[in-house]
Amino acid sequence: MKKSPADTETSVRSPQVSIKASVSQNLAEYLRLLEDQDVQDLHALVLAQVEPPLLEQVMAHVGQNQSKAAVMLGLSRGTLRTKLNKYGLL
User: How far apart are CA 16 and CA 30, in angstroms?
Assistant: First the structure.
């Protein structure tokens, strides 16, 4: 049976903190600081903050090889190129 990304997350983690725990902690702090401010489209905001460093780190890890990065990310190479272009990472 193939493992889901959530299953993999628990088996592949840094000695200090999992990605999920780190994101959760930072989001809790962000929301706490918002207090009563009206926020819309939090999902898009989080993706815009998380996706660029994810792409940068994966590209660095694979020596800028887009084919390897696409496989690692579970994306098509075309989708990866679109995302890299979107964030000015090409």
Answer: 21
50 and 75: one domain?
yes
Instruction: Please state, in angstroms and rounded to a whole number, the distance separating the CA atoms of residues 63 and 61.
Output: 6
pTM as predicted: 0.74
- Same domain? For 13 and 27 the reply is yes
pLDDT above 90 for 49: yes
> In whole angstroms, what is the distance from residue 21 CA to residue 76 CA?
28
Residue type, 1: M
**Cα four-point dihedral sign 89, 73, 82, 23:** negative
Task: For residues 27 and 66, state if they share a domain.
Answer: no
Half-sphere exposure (CA, 13 Å, Cβ side) for 67? 0
Q: How far is CA 58 from CA 41, 42, 43, 52, 55, in A?
A: 26, 24, 22, 10, 5
